[in-house]
Amino acid sequence: MVSFIFSLLPLFFFIMFLIYKTWNQAKHYTKIPSGRMGLPWIGETIGFYRAQRSNQLFENFFQPRINKHGKIFKTKLMGSPTVVVNGAAANKFFMSNEFKLVISSWPTSSVELMGKNSIMEKQGDSHRCLRGIIASTLSPTGLPTMVPRMCRLIRKHLMKNWGQRDEMISLHRSTKVLTFAIVLECLFGIRIDADTMFGVFENVLEGVMAAPINLPGTKFSSAKKARAKIQKALVDEVQKKKEAMEAGGRDEDDAMLLSNLVAALIRGEVTEDEVVDNIVLLVFAAHDTTSYAITMMFKMLANHPDCYTLLLKEHEDIAITKRREEDLTLEDVKKMEYTWQVARETMRLCPPIFGSFRKATADIEFEGFIIPKGWKVLWTAYGTHYNEEYFPDPMSFNPSRFADPVQAYAFIPFGGGPRLCAGYQLAKLNILVFMHYVVTRYDWSLVYPDEPVVMDPLPFPSKGMPIKISPKHGY
Ligand code: HEM
Questions:
Q1: Tens digits of residue pLDDT in 19-37
Q2: According to the UniProt entry, what is the EC number of this protein (predicted)?
Q3: What's the pTM value of the predicted model, to 2 decimals?
């Protein structure tokens, strides 16, 4: 009898194990955030894209779901179960747990076109190494030499494209072309034919969010061809720089990012592919973001003349201390405090990047919910930027709110944690120096004060934000 009972023991333990597993799974599933998974595979992608296209993601996609399910909700986007998280605590948790619990997650076409060796695909030590090289160029020792370079480039751009007559120009296109030249010349120290290369880079950008189908005639295939052209031009640049550096040649571009990357290449810390892929990535990361921030600042200033008066005074006070073609210094730029408040308030209301996807590398517990391993997490800037808990009267434009400190992880146009925007300092300089030269040299007005913004995949003014300009007396 005893031996019969003993022979049943394995069965008993097996049944107990099954009961425990089922109970544990049930516990897990009850804690997954609520929300709708929509249609099979496609989920709620169509509603998401429709809202994104018309720049109504907050109003038509996030807000209704937050109202119904709470600030952490589930959905399914582009085939992936996704948890959307909102709020400063969630931003802090998911941004600072990069590499530990989550990793950034980009569509296949973006990775193929930016390059598998770009910083956005890197983790751990190789990520840290690349960030260190970028940071060394944008450090307190690198920035003071960058300011005069940027001043000269911006003045040259305005002289060539804005001119001395009353004209109408597309502000968005002008700032895109300018940002492109700034990244290549002022950050990298690369002097390639910017006018021709700009078009080629734009071709690549058109394929970044397209389906990764490499067949003749598809957006992705022409983007791949354009990418190959860029690859060739940049490999030539890298090799020229390497030969010059190995021969001991020194030039004025020595402290710039291309030299710093090539120095790391010579030391064997990075590969040639890493150098090229990261030049491409940085150009793209800067391109639509900075130009959108600048164009929306003009829109906000046009609609808030009191703010414009304050901003203009700040720049006139700086200009009065300068000779006509004298460059600004980093000290001058530091005086542009109100302009930076205007820029931040603009990016709060109109974030150039509305949020970003991560992938859970383990089951994650957060605020009583479980996010299963493999699911996507989407943090959004709207979740805090438009929330009165962090910004009283959130939909009104009030730059002076940034005179006071803001709660950590509530204002996140540049992201946060280890993936905080690596070009933050460059973007800030670009915005402030450009504003200085435009407002001190031109009167301007918007052609379409109510011009709608659309997104594809990043936001931009639908008509390119044309402005009427007229040079001020003396310029
Ligand atoms: C107003 C302008 C800009 C905005 C709003 C912006 C915003 C952002 C945001 C939100 C992220 C984080 C993305 C994530 O967490 O997945 C990011 C990352 C990044 N940004 Fe920017 N950016 C701007 C300009 C620039 C510029 C000028 C550069 C360089 C020239 C740049 C280079 C990068 C890079 C390399 C990363 C990836 C960092 C990493 O993965 O470690 N950005 N940016």
A1: 555 455 545 545 899 999 9
A2: 1.14.99.37
A3: 0.91
